[in-house]
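Regression test attached.
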Amino acid sequence: DAGVIQSPRHEVTEMGQEVTLRCKPISGHDYLFWYRQTMMRGLELLIYFNNNVPIDDSGMPEDRFSAKMPNASFSTLKIQPSEPRDSAVYFCASSLTGFTGNTIYFGEGSWLTVV
Amino acid sequence: QKEVEQDPGPLSVPEGAIVSLNCTYSNSAFQYFMWYRQYSRKGPELLMYTYSSGNKEDGRFTAQVDKSSKYISLFIRDSQPSDSATYLCAIPPGAGSYQLTFGKGTKLSVIP
């Protein structure tokens, strides 16, 4: 399996622009997660889906952030409008039901810089 | 107090040394404990997990949980340059929960 695939790997954008990050989870996995990692705050869970349905979005920082999962093989995280403080690495991850001890597989991340 | 605290390091050791990485946590109800390894510019990958107290060994790696002290440790024996990475502890609030709380990670460098 190719693992969790994220795009773009790197993005530099200007403040105020819309940013869309994309994720393809591992085939057959029914949980999908979006994390954000910064030096100051570490790795934070933003939102997660089960069977394409958002389960908990309490980690989404503001209304500027939104996430969708239109089907089992694709999810997006959108920031509109973007701000410099959104600069971070955004990770998508997926897992299979039956968590405890099961692995959450992370993608390689999307490195976002907002200038 | 944060739920999970981890010394960010960085930690630099010579090849072959024994490494000790640690986290403390605040909620005594936590039962599952995990260690993730993250290489530079990569996503985290699960290294080990343990349930409740005690030790778990996997090759050169040993995970240890001391619930009385709310303290978890990861030991690396005979450390290798390939072990150079950031190590993050992670704790779910309960069985079946996917909402992992991660420590900020300790950056380890093993010098040849």
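Expected vs. actual: identical. Chain A is about 0% helix and 55% strand.
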